[in-house]
Amino acid sequence: MKSMQIRRTLVGLCLAASAAVFAAAPADAAKVPAPAMKARLAAKVPVTGLVRAGNALVAVGDYGTIVRSTDEGKTWQQAEVPVSALLTAVNFVDEMRGWAVGHGGLILATTDGGANWQVQATLDEKPVLLSVYFADAKRGYAVGAYGTAFGTTDGGREWKSMAVGSGHDADLHLNHVFGTRDGKLFIAAETGLAFRSTDRGASWAKLATGVTGSLWSGLERADGEVVLLGMSGRVIASRDGGTSWRALETGTEQSLTSGIALPNGGLIVVGAGGAVLRGDGNAPLQLEVRPDRQNLAAVAAGPTGALVVAGQLGVERLGSSK
Amino acid sequence: MHLPAPGGQSPPRRPNGYPDMIEKLVLAMQRVCFRHRLLILLALLGFTVVMALFASRLHMSAGFDKQLPQDHEYIQTFNQYREVLFGANRIIVTVEAAKGDIWNEKALTKLYDVTQALFFMKGVDRRTVTSLWTPNTRAVQITEEGMKAEDVIGGDVTVKALTPDNITAIRERTIVGGFIGSLVANDSSSAMVVAELADPDPQTGERLDYAEFSQRLESEVRNTFSDADVKIRIIGFAKQMGDISEGATSVIEFFALAFLLTAAAVYWYTRSWLLTFLPLACSLVSVVWQFGTITLLGFGLDPLAILVPFLVFAIGVSHGIQQVNYIAKEVINGADGYTAASRSFTGLLVPGTLALITAFVGFATLVLVPIPMIRELAITASVGVAYKIVTNLIMLPVLASYFRFDERFVLRATKMEGLRNRTMASLGVHIANPRNAAIGTLVCLALLVVAVWQSQGRHVGHVLPGAPELHDDSRYNQDVEAVVARYALGLDLLTVVVESPADGCYRHDVMSHVDRLTWYLANVPGVLSAQSLPSLTKLAASGVNEGNPKWAALPQEELTLGEAVRQVPEGMRLFNADCTLLPVNLYLADHKASTIKEVVAAVKHFREMQPFPGVTVRLASGNAGVQAATNEVVEHSELPMMLYVYATILVLVFAVYRDWRAMIACCLPLTLATFLGYWFMKELDIGLTVATLPVMVLAVGIGVDYAFYIYNRLQMHLAHGEDIVTAFKQALREIGVATVFTAVTLSIGVATWSFSALKFQADMGMLLTFMFMVNMIMAITLLPALAVTIDVLIPRRGPVRAPLMAH
């Protein structure tokens, strides 16, 4: 009872504090991006991206909310973020340095493991950015709606436009950009398109994925196999760096949003309708549908293997991935 | 003129310091009334007949709007938008499987039947009827080809064609469509039919009669479809109102019961049918006048205000008993009926008027509460009390002057008298003993401190879940509880009304502002969920982008934004036709005043700190919004009300007794009783509401009666030179029994209300019973103890002024 009281008071203080931030903002708040509101329910905000950064887990989502956990997802702290738009992706090169992107061409950066974020760039024409990937602290890529693709070679100070698709493909949404350990870059895109670059993003080749449904995400497994996933419960894999693809059995029609590679060579993929697919080692994927059927958008494993999923209802710790 | 005091001793006449004017007035009135007694009685009879004619036209009128503070900011918002906002006219019927779930032929068939019944029911807007069986229930799936919507129960599936296979398919589509928690219970144990009411009727323009509609729901839905396997539950505002009106009719029975109990008690007390008849008849006459007046004023009898005629009757009986007590004592001492009655008249006119004026002022101050219901109650109550001065202080003794009392009555009464006097006298000895009085005073002061401390944090507003007017175990509230437990559905809704420039829903900046407001409020403790057009538009935006969660943002571009907005169903009432209204619906954990207050404060904070040109954020609609307004008004009204009543008492006491001791002796017991009442409210979870605010004010007004009657006798004996202890013993002997008896009689009558089907009536009954008893106990214990203690501590210097009847 007492602690409840205290918590309420604290929340009241937090609300008051955030209100003070509002108060400091100019009256015409619509024109200037407002900082993310410090929210009691920050960890319950719709989350779109979730990654591990060293010993921490960092999740990004709506209202410019970024939350961070240093205890494998048991408790979450809200980070200081100067914007309040929907953030869509987050990526770290080490435990301190990370980037996040969002709607309105926003590129945010952190140098303290995700506790404080700065606006690094707001891209011209404010495109909807959907994914960010940094191969190292200097070289990074951001992709998004209608063929938007940018690259940086100076840690994000300057971003240059890249041409990924051509012709009809040039206008499609580029959903996810990621790299493999051997230095290749991949982009998963709309209508079954995927691209590969072997020259650090200078040129991109269209891949013959053999599918027509949109691909939303991709990853490299422990054994180097590249996996793409997307709508209609589709998971495809390539053992030759993206040249030829085979479909994996998933047993679901739900759109799959994101996945992680397990150290044992396995794979965990999450998706809409509470779908969680898991295959350890080279075993086939097993489908488990979460009873609340909430849409999941991201999954991550903590430093000791605790599994955390995120989506419409915020972040949630599932248990151990081992 | 020499009148012996009741009780035998005939004190010598002594000059008194009373204002001559009052003294002359009373004597003049006595002369006029008793000389023209027949004429006066005939005139009163004529008036009664006329009023009875009007009274016969009195009707019950349960008004929801009357309970709302109409001028309050929130209520003005509520009134302005009540037709267009969500939920006001919604009715929910659930079909609940007694065992297992609803995924079987039988339960689904029942659901179909209920859907049909509601569809064809008069008063229901057919277009809005929604259940698994209606074609507006569609499961939308996003596929590579685009959005695919299919009926949850397709047109090809009929009740007769239900098979385990297609039931499985229906179940799957229900889950996919997201109807678990909305149309089907979380645990599938029940399914829902939702409909909106056509009120007013689009064809005739007539308002829907909720009481009648509620009865049809019972006969055409609940009774028709519930059986051993299936339970029907019905909730919604119309049903709630219907059940309240139904409960209100039981009031007549309580009135009859209270009348019989009172009659029996008065007979036990007086042992004379004549003396029983007098107070009851005179009190009834004033109720008839009051009903006549209510009709003439154009009011109806409201379930909330039905307390008032009853109270007026009770007050009448209370004063009537003082009169018959006086008369009986005179008769025992050998006076004839006429003399006894005229002495009673003179003796009680001042304290009686004093008491009634206090009650009158108490009631009248309630007019200041800006809630029509309470104002109406204040007017009818003060009119009723004013009538009492005529019926009980004039008509009763004048009528009594025609009565003759035989020897046997005198003998019987004398015997009773002796026994009662002995009891009271011994009580008096103990209380008035200076040492005991000092102890008693200290104990009571300590009790006052405890009561003030304990009554802190009293609830304001309604505390328990469900419809606050009804008991928690009423069928309606059981239905509410069952539905809330099974569905992801909050029934405590606070709607923040956001007014925007025209087409505000197509403007990114306006929508973003509302979106921020929604998120801000979703984070307030006590808010379970927050829903607004932007929050659903974002989901729709994701939907048009293949369901990708990374697209769940408000599109920057006007056309794209418009496309997403159009995906949000109109039935959710989250925008109006020209997009000037973008409400934020907040579902709260409960409707406790503390919860609502926090939310209201958050809204005010946001609107102050984040102004947005052209956008107005207004509080508040929804049941919780309406309650917020009522709570604010009731809470802010209570203290001033009480202060007015106490001020009146102090002024009147001072005017009559010219003695500060009297002011303390009369008011301190009342204050203690009031705080004990607050403590009682807190302990019994009775909140301060539209129903209980008047009770506390009335209780003070009525409670002071006992103090007046007792202090009056005490003062008289003191004026005769008796010492305070003797004076009090005498006073208690003379009217102690009458006072105790009055309080007990009133309490018995009011206590019957505790069994009312309406919770607020039961609360009022319990509270009033408690207040009657406590005020009585205070008047016969703390009042004399205080008087004695003050006298001992600060001895009087001059002679005591005698009250008027000491002549």
Automatic annotation (TrEMBL), chain A:
<feature type="domain" description="Photosynthesis system II assembly factor Ycf48/Hcf136-like">
    <location>
        <begin position="123"/>
        <end position="271"/>
    </location>
</feature>
<dbReference type="Pfam" id="PF14870">
    <property type="entry name" value="PSII_BNR"/>
</dbReference>
<dbReference type="InterPro" id="IPR028203">
    <property type="entry name" value="PSII_CF48-like_dom"/>
</dbReference>
<keyword id="KW-0732">Signal</keyword>
<feature type="domain" description="Photosynthesis system II assembly factor Ycf48/Hcf136-like">
    <location>
        <begin position="73"/>
        <end position="121"/>
    </location>
</feature>
<feature type="signal peptide">
    <location>
        <begin position="1"/>
        <end position="23"/>
    </location>
</feature>
<dbReference type="InterPro" id="IPR015943">
    <property type="entry name" value="WD40/YVTN_repeat-like_dom_sf"/>
</dbReference>
<keyword id="KW-0602">Photosynthesis</keyword>
<keyword id="KW-0604">Photosystem II</keyword>
<protein>
    <submittedName>
        <fullName>YCF48-related protein</fullName>
    </submittedName>
</protein>
